[in-house]
Amino acid sequence: PGDTSVLAGLYGPAEAKVSKELPDRAALEVLLRPKVGLPGVMERSREQLLRQTCEAVVLGVLHPRTAITLVLQVLSDAGSLLSCCLNAACMALLDAGLPLTALFCGVTCALQPDGTILLDPTARQEQEARAILTFAIASSERKVLMANTKGSCSVEEMQQCLAAAQRAADTVFQFYRDSVRRRYSK
To answer: What are the tens digits of pLDDT across the range 44-88?
Structure first.
């Protein structure tokens, strides 16, 4: 939803600490900062999902032995937070000019008790939902890079949500194109 916002900062490629350095590619770290308080279990698990998604598209081999740190600060959470984080992460990678094999976007679906699918649910709609599914979808062939499910749904329902998310992804990629165009046409 328009009311969820995340600020992204990307640092690197910089010299990696020896303990974290990878000989063949860049070490990517994602830090998710909640709006208030310290990061907890929820943030840690989301950091992992975000890192895996970013690692799937970043051509880290072009920057071996370096560290790239992506910091995501939650400014407001009114629902669909993970997909907002995914979109902020992709925009940050793109903005930093890192070499990517594809872009990706996040789409959250809420499965209502009656089986209807809501895209981009609010926090309230998430609470009432039977399941919440978030997908990271790549711009190349609309491939799924990450899927995260909370609650219960059938395989068929999951496939319906994925199809809806893949359709919605086109809108997000168009938004990326427009905002990049606006930024570089100034």
So the answer is: 999 999 999 999 999 887 888 888 999 999 999 999 999 999 999
Does the 5-185 domain belong in CATH 3.30.230.70?
Answer: yes
pLDDT tens for each residue of 92-116: 999 888 889 999 999 999 999 998 9
Domain residue ranges of the chain, discontinuous segments joined by +: 5-185
Q: Measuring CA to CA, how many Å separate 25 from each of 51, 96, 109?
A: 14, 17, 34
Q: How many CA atoms lie within 13 A of 121 on its CB side?
A: 23
Q: What is the token pair recorded at 1?
A: 């939803």
Neighbours of 113 (CB within 10 A): 9
CA dist list (Å): 174 to 24, 56, 181:
34, 21, 10
Two tokens at 132?
């919440």
Cis peptide before 34 (omega within 30 of 0): no
CA distance 28 to 136: 17
User: Residue 128 contacts by C-beta under 8 Å, 6 or more apart in sequence?
Assistant: 110, 112, 113
